[in-house]
């Protein structure tokens, strides 16, 4: 326990050097152990070592050296807007979002403390509330009725969302803002990038089940593997060529001949005559 004389002396020094602006409210131990001091002007209580205080260390709130906390931020909010807004979260940093409540409309949202203090208020009342999937669906319905269906989840105005054109069944992705500006089904507008599924449909529309697409579509001039179900022939052809009525090379006599096929043709023509001739020559050499 500190001597009464030391406590009295420290109190007198506080009074004299600050013109009674500060007072000791905590228990004094020694010059190096923190004590609680009251700043009468702002009513803020803080702890400081007696030595530091006598060297000039003053109220951290008034000197701007105080680390902000939830209590301080709440006071800043109240000084700005009174009871109109309520701080629901805990203050971390000036740029870390904190949960707020606008008591007039009851809307709860998150905002950076520094942004709020600069004058940015309730996003709902300001008309800048983030759009939801439900809101986007309503906008689509108001524009096109049931012709289009929203399949994906709305993220923002410039992130693609999955849509379905109910008239043709085409599913595709589009930027929400682009759709609202009039961008519609790429299949029906002729702007859809062709893929294997689309090419298969084109083949079926032309020849039914007579041909099967075995490969993956890359471009209109990159060959793709096909199968002619009538003869079983598998071959490669450029999609554009097939769609221009070029069909199975085997059935149309355009198939490239293989070594095996040529051997078979030779065999059909001359049979075993070559082998028999060799055997005869071998017998002749015996005479």
Essential attributes:
287 residues; alpha+beta; 3-stranded antiparallel sheet
What does this protein structure show overall?
- With 287 residues, the chain is α+β, with helices and mostly antiparallel strands.
- The protein has 4 domains: 4-63, no CATH class; 70-126, no CATH class; 133-189, no CATH class; 194-268, no CATH class.
- It is built from 13 helices and 12 strands.
- Strands 1-2-3 form a 3-stranded antiparallel beta sheet. Strands 4-5-6 form a 3-stranded antiparallel beta sheet. A 3-stranded antiparallel beta sheet has the order 7-8-9.
- A hairpin with a 4-residue loop joins strand 2 (35-39) and strand 3 (44-48).
- The radius of gyration is 44 Å and the shape is elongated.
- The chain starts with a helix and ends with a helix.
Can you lay out the helices and strands and say which pair or pack?
Blueprint: H1 4-18, E1 22-24, E2 35-39, E3 44-48, H2 50-54, H3 60-63, H4 70-81, E4 85-87, E5 98-102, E6 107-111, H5 113-117, H6 123-126, H7 133-144, E7 148-150, E8 161-165, E9 170-174, H8 176-180, H9 186-189, H10 196-207, E10 211-213, E11 224-228, E12 233-237, H11 239-243, H12 259-270, H13 273-284
Antiparallel strand pairs: 1-2, 2-3, 4-5, 5-6, 7-8, 8-9, 10-11, 11-12
Question: What is the element string, with H for helices and E for strands?
Answer: HEEEHHHEEEHHHEEEHHHEEEHHH
- In terms of DSSP E residues, the strand content is 15-25%
Helical coverage, percent range: 25-40%
> Structural class, judged by helices and strands?
alpha+beta
Q: Give the terminus-to-terminus CA distance.
A: 141 Å
Count of individual domains: 4
Low-confidence stretches: 281-287
**Order of strands, widest sheet:** 1-2-3
Radius of gyration: 44 Å
Query: How would you characterize the largest beta sheet?
Result: 3 strands, antiparallel
What's the average pLDDT? 86
Overall form: elongated
How many strands appear in the DSSP assignment?
12
Number of helices: 13
């Amino acid at each position: 326990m500190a001597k009464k004389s030391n406590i009295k002396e420290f109190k007198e020094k506080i009074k004299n050097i600050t013109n009674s602006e500060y007072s000791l409210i905590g228990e004094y131990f020694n010059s190096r152990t923190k004590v609680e001091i009251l700043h009468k002007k702002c009513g803020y209580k803080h702890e400081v070592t007696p030595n530091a205080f006598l060297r000039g260390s003053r109220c951290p709130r008034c000197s701007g050296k105080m680390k902000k906390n939830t209590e301080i931020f709440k006071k800043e909010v109240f000084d700005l807007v009174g009871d109109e807004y309520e701080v629901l979260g805990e203050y971390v940093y000036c740029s870390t979002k904190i949960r707020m409540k606008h008591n007039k409309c009851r809307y709860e949202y998150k905002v950076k403390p520094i942004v709020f203090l600069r004058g940015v208020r309730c996003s709902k009342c300001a008309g800048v509330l983030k759009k939801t999937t439900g809101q986007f669906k309503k906008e689509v319905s108001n524009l096109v009725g049931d012709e289009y269906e929203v399949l994906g989840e709305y993220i923002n105005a410039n992130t693609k969302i999955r849509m379905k054109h109910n008239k043709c069944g085409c599913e595709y992705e589009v930027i929400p803002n682009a759709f609202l500006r009039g961008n519609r089904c790429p299949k029906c507008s002729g702007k859809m990038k062709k893929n294997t599924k689309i090419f298969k449909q084109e083949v079926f529309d032309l020849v039914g089940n007579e041909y099967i697409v075995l490969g993956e579509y890359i471009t209109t001039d990159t060959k793709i593997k096909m199968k002619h179900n009538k003869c079983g022939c598998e071959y490669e052809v450029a999609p554009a060529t097939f769609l221009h009525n070029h069909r199975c090379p085997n059935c149309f006599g355009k198939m490239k001949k293989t070594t095996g096929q040529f051997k078979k043709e030779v065999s059909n023509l001359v049979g075993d005559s070559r082998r028999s001739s060799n055997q005869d020559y071998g017998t002749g050499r015996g005479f």
